[in-house]
Amino acid sequence: xxAAAVSAAAASAAAVSAVGSSDGGVAVDEIEGVADxxxxxxxxxxxxxxxxxxxxxxxxxxxxxxxIWRGGMHDWPCSAAASRGGGSDSYTAEVAGxxxxxLFGAAAQPTVPLERPPAxxxxxxxxxxxxxxxxxxxALAAVARGDGYLKDWHVVRDAPAAASRALxxxxxxxxxxxxxFYYDTVARVAGATAVDDYRFVYYxxxxxxxxxxxxxxxxxxxxxxxxxxxLWLMLPPEVSRDTLYDAWGDLCVNTLxxxxxxxxxxxxxAPATGxxxxxxxxxxxxxxxxxxxxxxxxxxxxxxxxxxxVAVQRAGDVMFVPPGWHHEVLNLATTxxxxxxxxxxxxLGATWGFVAREAAAVRASIQxxxxxxxxxxxxECHVQLLLRLNAAANADDVRLWCRAASIHWFDCISLxxxxxxxxxx
Length: 425
What we know:
The chain is 39% helix and 17% strand. It has 14 helices and 14 strands.
């Protein structure tokens, strides 16, 4: 029943293209034009109907370069919602809410994480915003009002398995996933539906955002827009190490948006906060923050515009974010997306390098306590414990991910069966 409800809600989204766009004071094309004028690098768009998944892997995944895989959601059960047309925020909220409610049918709905917009005009750094746990229905209502961002919801873990498969499938170029395969294996051994994973749903109103960050554990990620529009800004690792961090290794920049682009975004978002439309707290907070960015040179001015990569992701697009690329995301319209963090053979070196750098930093920070440990082994065990707390993973975790994947591959080859499949693939 839940799968049928998802399909019915998704089918109704085909009418989105018939609804007039509410893009604000300027068109999305103007935002892209400002980025071009600043010399920012356009993230390439790859047509899934023309370029094979093997080519996507060879050109982008293996060398760790970002891309948009356009049409990569054509086989999703909810693909009718991935309309190429525009649509009002209220109509998109109705469609997206129907899709998410349909995951559960008559079953009890879960509580989900909702991030509230900042009250002032400040741009909170990554992870600094206030979050709360709400019943799904209350969170959907808050997003529809523009009063919160449903973020990092473990939908595969929380929803019935059949329902989550009715929502989406893993895009084929990104299916070789050591990370989530490991957690699925642990769940099967434990006899549980899921113990943890790195598969998320994001659902936010116009003006909601995610500040500058790199993905957890230096993982790669992909993000697929079921409906709505996102602006992405990215910076490659070789630039971000020298420009985004202070002498103590702390992230000291909370936006990559240059002032001229902030001014264009203000013209785009400001109409969503006017008297003629319902108040959107997320858009209002974004307008306050962008006003300060547009008026003066922010810390992001130290980032050369020519080093910034930019893209507008539309409904039906799948964004690939390589490991270690810092990025910032702004919802230009009410948007529902599915996101995975993942590791594969191509990205494992970057993740291992991150874990090694973080381990060295932990050792340096507690070096003065080393003589208090009974043995070098006890010392290193404590280093690895702190490393997991600080970086969400340590050397043992990486070994376990790789071991689980290699055993499965060996079994597949021995039994002449297909290579790894995943819970939503």
